[in-house]
Amino acid sequence: MNIYVILKQTFDTEEKIVIQNGEILDDGVKYIINPYDEYAVEEALRLKEQHGGTVIVVSVGPDRTAEALRTALAMGADEAVLISDPSIRTDESGIAALLASYFGSQSYDLILGGYFSVDNGAGQVAVRLAQLLDIPHASAIVKLDVSGGQAVAVRDAEGDSETVEISLPALFTAQQGLNEPRYPSLPGIMKAKKKPFQQLGLNELGIDAESIVSKTERIELFNPPERKAGIILQGGLAEQAAELVRLLKTEAKVL
Amino acid sequence: MSKTFMVVAETRDGKLRQVSLEALQAAELAKEDGDQVTAVLLGYELEGPAEELARCFQGRVLVVDHPDLKSYLAETYISALSQVLSSITPDLVLFGHTTVGRDLAPQVASRLQAGQISDVTAIENSGGDIIYTRPVYAGKAFEKKRLIGGSGIITLRPNNITPAGPASSPAEIAAFDYTPASSLRSVIKDVVRKATGKIDLTEAKVVISGGRGVKSAEGFKPLEDLAEVLHGAVGASRGACDAGYCDYALQIGQTGKVVTPEIYIACGISGAIQHLAGMSQSRVIIAINKDPEAPIFKVADYGIVGDLFEVVPLLTQEFKQALA
Ligand SMILES: Cc1cc2nc3c(=O)[nH]c(=O)nc-3n(C[C@H](O)[C@H](O)[C@H](O)COP(=O)(O)OP(=O)(O)OC[C@H]3O[C@@H](n4cnc5c(N)ncnc54)[C@H](O)[C@@H]3O)c2cc1C
Ligand SMILES: Cc1cc2nc3c(=O)[nH]c(=O)nc-3n(C[C@H](O)[C@H](O)[C@H](O)COP(=O)(O)OP(=O)(O)OC[C@H]3O[C@@H](n4cnc5c(N)ncnc54)[C@H](O)[C@@H]3O)c2cc1C
């Protein structure tokens, strides 16, 4: 079985966001695999352990993205593909188009991704990719079983769960709760260094910058007004409870 | 030239979702005189919701009512919506940023080869140029964006735009003749409604969240009682989800749901940066924690230092009286 994972490198979720001259500062920032994509990597590895096959991790991003792909290799993925080119400055539609052009020449049974990225958070790239490849998909999955040419996935739908049966090839996006991602082991890290690592630019993909041009543009970036600490209520707990309700009525006017 | 706006409306438990009325209002904000608004309602047994929708704007409601659309399935819904889109060419398509909207919108965007701006929290129309505000890093920052050329897709975050109210003359309702999708590659096997009757977390006006401080699944009971009195929803920190006290569907934060209720009550939650990202835009934040140094107090409008198992039942009592 050929299992592909599309993953994005994001800021560590501990990072604060500092904006200077309309850009987010990235000096000294720690990067991680987008947490949702980490579930996708883990699920791919589990499927491989059950059914055999190859796990290939694919990412579009700048050179530093290699680090995220190496982490996935150290977790146990077999091969990595980095799509990187200085002229890639595009939005979700363009990223999806790039991935689609890569997958156009691959043979895949499953593509796994994340429900959304924790940085830009559009939740578009994976679903757009499924459309471009004309394969079925299910998003926000919390369980996945594969047998024969079929997959059965359980999706989280705002607290309800929906079980969907899908014929392969298909794409799935991971929701929290799907699994508990493993940590890379020391031997895993050593082995990762020798695993195939392919880097592709627009030329290799046979795609020109025109065809991945952004359909949206950013005009401004800003931090929200900082919240100020309010008041800590005083007195006995029963008094505080009564005081809080009074303040919500008279001061905050939300009751 | 006049434009066409399409709002893809949604129901839940047989009722029209409020975010659909917010999307209608968003279309109102973006439109100019002479522009047309069409709302599309997909599902099964939609008479009531269609009428409710029609009361709230002037234009047209297209109803795609079919047993195949009873539950959401990506393939059937995109098939239905594509059929509608072959008869109308909208300039802007608006969805709620809900489970369904989040899945359906990018499919439409891809098919129309359009740009999409997701999770929009505000819309401004400056002389025909429509500017959308949306969070990045789950609200640690915000950006303003535009669709190049002006047309495309947006998904709207619930609870941020005032919903459309009754219109002076209602929209006309028309049934859309849907041809069931053939050669499907996916099928729904089962739907377990665990959340029926509950208020959706992202749409709730009041959210009561529990953290590791609730100590067990049963520890959520007092929070549920308070939520019932306030007609709110119960949420959680990742700490509580990881500990197995509740489902991940309740998680609020950078890797969970982002909520913007009128009132957010954090009970036994320390206030980690990832949690704050998901709730800092709430109108009023209340923190209940036994540790006076807990970082959650730095963002709370009102704080109570104490044991949540004492404080929460007291609050439930007080709210019950105040709202009686
Ligand atoms: C005009 C413009 C210019 C931009 N220029 C840049 C730029 O120069 N550099 C830059 O880093 N960003 C740039 N961006 C942002 C970039 O387009 C988005 O980060 C990207 O489209 C992914 O969107 P997202 O993070 O919302 O992912 P989502 O749509 O939320 O991702 C969903 C899932 O898709 C998969 N996925 C997402 N992104 C990738 C990826 N890159 N590779 C593999 N799989 C992926 C993952 O599985 C992920 O969980 C630009 C955006 C705009 C609007
Ligand atoms: C990649 C990544 C992503 C993450 N994403 C998220 C996310 O989206 N959302 C999120 O919430 N977290 C997220 N986290 C986890 C986050 O860092 C914190 O670990 C988590 O929020 C802590 O949960 P908590 O506040 O419930 O628990 P704790 O930090 O353990 O706090 C428990 C609090 O309860 C108080 N308490 C205990 N008993 C009582 C009592 N009887 N009465 C009153 N107060 C009491 C304590 O004083 C303490 O402040 C993420 C972490 C990582 C690494």
What does this structure look like?
Chain A folds into two domains: 211 residues, HUPs (Rossmann fold, 3-Layer(aba) Sandwich); 27 residues, no CATH class. In chain A, β6, α2 and β7 form a beta-alpha-beta unit. Chain A is of the alpha/beta class and 255 residues long. Helices cover 29% and strands 30% of the residues of chain A. In chain A, α2 packs across α5. Chain A is globular. In chain A, strands 11-10-9-12-8-1-6-7-13 form a nine-stranded mixed sheet, with helices on both faces. The N and C termini of chain A lie far apart (57 Å). Chain B is α/β, with parallel strands linked by helices and 324 residues long. Chain B has two domains: 172 residues, Rossmann fold; 123 residues, Rossmann fold (3-Layer(aba) Sandwich), CATH 3.40.50. Chain B contains eight helices and 18 strands. In chain B, the strands form four sheets. Chain B has a seven-stranded parallel sheet with strand order 7-11-6-1-4-5-12, with helices on both faces. In chain B, strands 15-14-16-17-18 form a five-stranded parallel sheet. Chain B has a three-stranded antiparallel sheet with strand order 8-9-10. The mean pLDDT of chain B is 96. Chains A and B meet through α3, α4, β9, β10 and β11 of A and α4, β7, β9, β10 and β13 of B. β11 of chain A pairs antiparallel with β13 of chain B.
